[in-house]
Each structure stands twice: as structure tokens, then as C-alpha cells.
């Protein structure tokens, strides 16, 4: 999967740093083994079963910055479709396993993304999975 999802991008680091300063602890390289696949959320809260993905604007074709390359267009269209299909599989498998999933775009304000995650952990995601 190398290349399809870049890790430790600037927006991701900013979201993490704000979460940390708000007192939340998370896992960065956590693997969730599900039937037949392994999901690797960008930020994971295993005890709360909350998975966070910060989607890259190119790889995930955000509506604002997701420009399809002109060169080798068919190749890229196919590759990006495979990426999107894999993401849908992973998200569906996580949800089927009782996880909540938050997706944000890398162009979103990291502070707002972190605050949304903080809100979710306080108000929305049940704390029913002791570990
Ligand atoms: Zn974007």
C-alpha cells in the first residue's frame, strides 16, 4: 500500500499535536485486523474504537483540489478508483466491527478537525471497550 496514503503529513501532525495538547492520547501506527484486511487509520483510539483518516486531496480527489493529472490520465483514473474502493472496504469493515470513523480532508483547518474529534470522544463515541 506504500504510496497510496502518505503518513505524518503536515495537516496530520497539526491535528495530532492539538489533540495531544487537549489531553487526548491516540495511536499513530495502529493496525486493525479485520476479516481479510488490515486497516491503518491515520489516528486511532483503540479503546474507544474511533478511527480517524485525514484524506489527501489528490489521492482521495477532494472536490476543491482533486485534479486528475492530464498525463497518463487513464492510469491515474484507475489507480485513484482503486484507492477509493479500498478506502470504502476498510471503512465498511471497521464499522462492521463496531468502530466509528471520522474522515477529514487534508485542506481542512487542523484545529477544527481536532476539535471535532475531541467533541466526538466526549459526546458521541461510547466508552464501552475497556482494554
Ligand atoms: Zn482539498
What does this protein look like?
With 131 residues, this protein is an alpha+beta fold. The chain has helices at 10-21, 73-96, 110-124, and strands at 32-34, 37-39, 43-45, 50-55, 100-105. A three-stranded mixed beta sheet has the order 3-4-5, sandwiched between helices. Strands 1-2 form a two-stranded antiparallel ribbon. The longest helix is centred in the middle third of the chain and has 24 residues, at 73-96. The protein binds zinc ion. Residues 57, 62, 64-65, 105, 107 line the site of zinc ion (ZN).
SSE arrangement:
Elements: H1 10-21, E1 32-34, E2 37-39, E3 43-45, E4 50-55, H2 73-96, E5 100-105, H3 110-124
Parallel strand pairs: 4-5
Antiparallel strand pairs: 1-2, 3-4
Bound molecules: zinc ion
| SSE series | HEEEEHEH
Net shape: globular
Distance between the termini: 29 Å
> What share of residues is helical?
25-40%
Short summary:
This protein has 131 residues and is an alpha+beta fold. The protein contains three helices and five strands; from the N terminus they run H-E-E-E-E-H-E-H. The longest helix is centred in the middle third of the chain and has 24 residues, at 73-96.
Name some characteristics of this structure.
two-stranded antiparallel ribbon, globular, alpha+beta, binds zinc ion, 131 residues, 3-stranded mixed beta sheet
Amino acid at each position: 500500500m506504500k504510496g497510496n496514503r502518505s503518513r505524518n503529513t503536515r495537516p496530520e501532525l497539526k491535528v495530532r499535536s492539538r489533540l495531544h495538547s487537549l489531553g487526548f492520547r491516540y495511536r499513530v501506527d495502529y493496525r486493525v485486523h479485520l476479516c481479510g484486511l488490515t486497516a491503518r487509520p491515520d489516528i486511532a483510539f483503540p479503546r474507544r474504537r474511533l478511527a480517524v483518516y485525514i484524506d489527501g486531496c489528490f489521492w482521495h480527489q477532494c472536490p476543491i483540489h482533486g485534479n486528475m493529472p492530464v498525463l497518463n490520465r487513464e492510469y491515474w483514473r484507475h489507480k485513484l478508483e482503486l484507492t477509493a474502493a479500498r478506502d470504502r472496504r476498510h471503512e465498511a469493515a471497521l464499522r462492521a466491527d463496531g468502530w466509528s470513523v471520522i474522515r477529514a480532508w487534508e485542506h481542512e483547518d487542523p484545529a477544527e478537525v481536532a476539535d471535532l474529534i475531541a467533541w466526538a470522544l466526549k459526546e458521541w463515541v461510547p466508552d464501552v471497550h475497556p482494554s
